[in-house]
From TrEMBL, chain A:
HAMAP family: NDH1_NuoN_1. One of its GO terms (cellular component) is endomembrane system. It is a multi-pass membrane protein. It holds the Pfam family Proton_antipo_M. Belongs to the complex I subunit 2 family. Residues 128-422 form the NADH:quinone oxidoreductase/Mrp antiporter transmembrane domain. It comes from Aurantiacibacter rhizosphaerae. Keywords: Cell membrane, Membrane, NAD, Oxidoreductase, Quinone, Translocase, Transmembrane, Transmembrane helix, Transport, Ubiquinone. GO terms for biological process: ATP synthesis coupled electron transport. The keyword Translocase applies. This is NADH-quinone oxidoreductase subunit N. Its EC number is 7.1.1.-. The keyword NADP does not apply.
TrEMBL record, chain B:
The lineage of its organism: Bacteria, Pseudomonadati, Pseudomonadota, Alphaproteobacteria, Sphingomonadales. It comes from Aurantiacibacter rhizosphaerae. The keyword Iron does not apply. Belongs to the complex I subunit 4 family. The keyword Cell cycle does not apply. This is NADH-quinone oxidoreductase subunit M. Its EC number is 1.6.5.11. The chain crosses the membrane at residues 6-24, 31-51, 71-94, 106-124, 130-150, 162-181, 201-219, 231-254, 266-289, 296-317, 323-345, 357-382, 402-422, 443-461. Residues 66-120 form the NADH:ubiquinone oxidoreductase chain 4 N-terminal domain.
Length: 487, 510
């Protein structure tokens, strides 16, 4: 494979890096006046990368032709599908952010550039076929994310969120690096296919330790319990568009990465990591559900909701099959739509002065004062709870179908029973909006881009979404099939 | 009917109505809702008229490859036909019952009811197990809103309880369904009804389905959501709950548990019998001491549903037919009783029995109709419930005479609490001036109660109209169950003096 072919495979990443660098220069010289133009340019760059990836995904890229740079990088359909979600979620963050920051009086030109670099990092993560590529992508994403969390420099909560994220993220990176070095030391290679060969006759103790630490580091990135502590604080403190970005794109990237490491590098040793995944999955579901019950702040509640959802995604991974990987991708796609929808709804919660309100009690009686917003939130909440006929049900359905097919019935039964605990706080929000007396705090004027995004999300998760089952399932199946699984 | 997709149209009409109602003011929303439900009733009559008794088992089948992973497949047999008829019959009455009682957020209210109608028809018509599940579960959302938004004082607690109880019951069923489909390789209900699962798997599957259907039914001891939900729901909400939603559990047993897991059903028959016996006696006694009219009727529903379950698990034709007839009859009668409570509640705004009395003097027409429904609930011959209760108890008597004995006390206790209620509300002295000043039934209320009264008498006098469409399906189910049916405890011996006739002896032992 020659160099030009490799470069062609990473064309989306090249587009993102070059446009990111150019826009960074523009931002440095142009200052914050050009923020809006830079936002639009970033969105265009993401759109270009999205289009390029979409072509590859639709053709179901798989096999040796997708490997670039001597096995460092894989531009297969699995990575492609994840990239589509990442670019779309990043684009959504760019769409909603300007209005929010302008209202806060602090729209910075760095914001779109950082989002672009974070997207680039995630794009590298999901394509990583080597521990080194993995780490480069992960750190590029994380470093951008730390800055994004604290981008409102005058806001104490934002600064606190950034610092917390940085300290704990640094710790997680350390754990991950430690696991990677152990794996390298005991497998003799950093390449996933090489590791797969090295562990094919069983794990040595050193390799097992390496695997465990790598898993722990990645669990931090997807905020799976017991490595979830940072999530509520960071989600609450970070500016809402940034929180929306954190809850969607990096989740996709880290979950896809976790799937790739588990299935490609350690695919033959499924029994070893399955225990870890099952433990993290069930714990996330339960902690996500119980933790959310007492929350007064919508963003904290959504943070616990995302922990809860990660648990369900991990259930798909626990199946350890291609069907499980496909189910995860379907769940992720639906999850991204639901998350973006919920946070856009949070963005629309503003009082008469245009200030953001985030307390659940401010939602009281929303169905009488702002019926459209209330009905959209109702659909989102029932969808997150996984109640049919909303589309969120389908994500849970495919995941549990995969686990049942893999004959892990006990996991399926416990997981689904725990989902009922989660349903409680989702219906609590519905109760506040529909059953309580109106307090009428939320009366912010409407922003067209926000509403447009919310309505797109609401339509996608409505029963009309079921018409997408066929195409989405096909894409996910093809993506899963393109994994170089080692079983 | 040619290729006319009547079942889809019956779901589409209320769905469009629901969407329209959301954007409308009170007055047009009421009209649209009434119109949509009446169109559905008319379509239901067309459906019944065109149903070919003795024809194919599944009629009016439709399917469309809309989704991947499960199919949009509809079709009905006689059992589903009757339950769909019950739903479309009760819906216009519910809309009428809410005509004046609901004044706030009318558009949303009507939309929720129309959505319920869509989902109920969907549940009974679904021929794909996952499609069934989606409709089955989706009913939680509109019902949660109906109880929570338009309910009484303690509505929020009741709404939570209703939602979480029924959700917990159902999710385990989903896992069982996933396993079954994985095992059998199809999600088609008619195919699964003939598929023989391994007996040890049946045990677990049966329990998972039981968890769901027992809550919906509701069976003792998981019935506690029902009195709360009933008392707090608006009148029409109670009618729909009692009239149709409670039938989902029974329908689930007859469509899924019994034909799909016959061995496990026989194995667990003692459990169902035991719970039903407790339910009949216990909830009847609880009903006897209620001071709240709606709560009393809610507890009586639990007792009636327990007779349905013993009928279903009697494993013979009479039991099954009886269970179906009670479901239909109870749907009408309890619905009508809730309407009767609603009539006086709308006038005095209390459900407390002691606040009424002597209504026979100022509301004679009301007293007559209330009497009819009270008698029907007791199971007086000539009314709908007599047919069902007699058949169900005759069925269970062949399976186990002790169960029959205990369950029959439910009839006596039923007479006690219903007549006691009737005496306190309608007879006696007029001790409360405001209750004595209440006007008699209005034209609207006549229009609501009249059709139900006619249906109750029709079902009691000529049940054949209702039994005929179901007969073939119940016989099919009976043959499916015959191999695993538990042996009856009545070991009849032929007396010495009687002429030894082989076929008589056989007939007696069944």
């Amino acid at each position: 494979m020659d160099y030009s072919q490799s470069l062609a495979l990473v064309l989306p990443e090249i587009i993102l890096s070059i446009s990111g660098l150019i826009l960074l220069l523009l931002a440095a010289w142009g200052g914050d006046k050009g923020a809006r133009v830079i936002s639009i340019a970033s969105a265009v760059a993401l759109g270009g990368a999205f289009a390029l990836v979409a072509v590859a995904v639709c053709s179901g890229a798989a096999g040796p032709d997708t490997i670039a740079f001597g096995g460092q990088f894989r531009a297969d359909a699995f990575a492609g599908l994840a990239k589509l979600m990442i670019f779309a979620a990043s684009g959504a963050a760019l769409v909603v952010a300007p209005r929010y920051f302008e209202r806060a009086g602090d729209m910075r030109a760095e914001f779109p550039v950082l989002v672009l670099f974070a997207a680039l990092g995630m794009s590298i993560m999901v394509s990583a076929a080597d521990l080194m590529t993995l780490y480069i992508g992960l750190e590029l994403n994380s470093l951008s994310a730390y800055v994004l969390a604290s981008i409102l420099r005058d806001d104490e909560r934002s600064a606190e969120a950034g610092l917390k994220y940085f300290v704990l993220g640094g710790l997680a990176s350390g754990i991950l690096l430690f696991g990677m070095s152990l794996t390298y030391g005991f497998a003799g290679t950093t390449n996933f296919s090489g590791i797969a060969v090295a562990v094919s006759d069983g794990l040595s103790t050193g390799q097992l330790f390496g695997l465990t630490f790598v898993m722990a580091g990645l669990a931090f990135k997807i905020s799976a319990a017991p490595f979830h502590m940072w999530t509520p604080d960071v989600y609450e403190g970070a500016p809402t568009p940034v929180t929306m970005f954190f809850a969607s794109a990096p989740k996709v990237a880290a979950v896809a990465l976790l799937a790739r490491v588990s299935l490609e590098a350690f695919g033959t040793q499924a029994d070893a990591w399955r225990q870890i995944v099952i433990f993290a999955a069930l714990l996330s579901i339960v902690i996500g559900a119980l933790g959310a019950i007492g929350q007064q702040n919508v963003k904290r509640l959504l943070a616990y909701s995302s922990i809860n959802n990660v648990g369900f995604i991990l259930i798909g991974l626990a199946a350890g099959t291609l069907a499980g990987a496909s189910a995860m991708m379907v769940y992720l796609a639906i999850y991204v739509v639901m998350t973006i929808g919920s946070f856009v709804a949070v963005l629309l919660m503003r009082d008469a002065n245009g200030n953001q309100v985030e307390n659940i009690s401010d939602l009281a009686g929303l169905s009488t004062t702002r019926p459209a917003l209330a009905w959209c939130l109702l659909a989102l909440m029932f969808s997150l709870a996984g109640i049919p006929p909303l589309f969120g049900f389908w994500g849970k359905f495919v995941v549990f179908q995969a686990v049942v097919e893999a004959d892990l019935l006990a996991i399926a039964a416990i997981g689904i029973a725990a989902s009922v605990i989660g349903a409680f706080y989702y219906i609590k929000i519905v109760k506040v909006m529909f059953f309580d007396e109106a307090v009428d705090t939320i009366k912010g004027e409407s922003d067209t881009p926000h509403w447009a995004l919310l309505i797109i999300c609401a339509v996608l998760i409505s029963p009309l979404g079921y018409l997408l089952i066929g195409p989405l399932g096909n894409l996910a199946d093809r993506a899963a099939a393109s994994l170089a699984v080692a079983f | 009917m040619g290729g006319f997709p009547i079942l889809s149209v019956m779901m589409l009409v209320p769905l469009l109505g629901a969407i329209a109602c959301l954007f409308m003011d009170a007055k047009p929303a009421r009209m649209v809702a009434l119109l949509a439900t009446l169109i559905d009733l008319a379509l239901g009559i067309v459906l019944w008229a065109n149903y070919d008794i003795g024809g194919a088992q599944w009629q009016f089948t439709e399917s469309a490859g809309l989704f991947a992973g499960f199919e949009y497949a509809l079709g009905i047999d006689g059992i589903a036909l009757m339950l769909i008829m019950l739903s479309v019959f009760l819906m216009p009455i519910c809309i009428g019952a809410s005509w004046e009682a609901i004044t706030k957020r009318v558009g949303e209210y009507m939309a929720a009811f129309l959505l319920m109608e869509v989902l109920m028809i969907g549940v009974f018509a679904a021929q794909d197990i996952f499609l069934f599940y989606i409709f089955f579960e989706a009913g939680l959302i509109p019902m949660y809103l109906i109880i929570g938004v338009w309910g009484g004082q303690n509505r929020i607690y009741a709404a939570y309880k209703f939602f979480l109880y029924t959700l917990l019951g159902s999710v385990l069923m989903l896992i069982a369904m996933l396993w079954m489909v994985n095992e059998a390789g199809t999600s088609s209900v008619p195919v699964l009804m003939e598929y023989d699962f391994a007996p040890e798997a049946q045990t677990w599957l049966w329990l998972a389905f039981f968890a769901s259907f027992a809550v919906k039914m509701p069976m003792w001891p998981v019935h506690t959501w029902l009195p709360d939900a009933h008392v707090q729901a608006p009148t029409a909400g109670s009618v729909i709950l009692a009239g149709v939603l409670l039938k989902l559990g029974g329908y689930g047993f007859i469509r899924f548990s019994l034909p799909m897991f016959p061995d496990a059903s026989a194995q667990f028959a003692w459990l169902v019998w035991g719970l039903s016996m407790i339910a009949v006696v216990l909830t009847s006694l609880i009903a006897l001491v209620q001071a709240d009219m709606k709560k009393l009727i809610a507890y009586s529903s639990v007792a009636h549903m327990a007779i349905v379950t013993v009928g279903l698990f009697a494993f013979n034709v009479q039991g099954l037919e009886g269970a179906m007839m009670i479901m239909l009859g109870h749907g009408l009668v309890s619905g009508a009783l809730f309407l009767c409570v609603g009539v006086i509640y709308d006038r005095l705004h209390t459900r407390e029995i002691d606040r009424y009395g002597g209504l026979a003097i100022n509301m004679p027409a009301y007293a007559v109709l209330f009497m009819l429904f009270t008698m029907a609930s007791v199971g007086l011959p000539g009314t709908s419930n007599f047919v069902g209760e007699f058949l169900a108890l005759a069925g269970i008597y062949q399976a186990n005479s002790w169960v029959a004995f205990v369950c029959t006390t439910g009839i006596i206790l039923g007479a006690a609490y219903m007549l006691y209620l009737y005496r306190r509300v309608v007879f006696g002295i007029q001790k409360n001036a405001d209750a004595a000043a209440m006007p008699d039934l209005s034209v609207r209320e006549y229009l609501l109660l009249g059709p139900i009264a006619a249906a109750v008498l029709w079902m009691g006098v000529y049940p054949e109209s209702f039994l005929a469409p179901m007969r073939a399906d119940i016989e099919l189910l009976d043959t499916r169950l015959a191999a695993s049916a538990p042996e009856g405890d009545a070991h009849l011996a032929i007396g010495e003096g009687a002429p030894p006739a082989e076929e008589h002896a056989e007939g007696g032992a069944h």
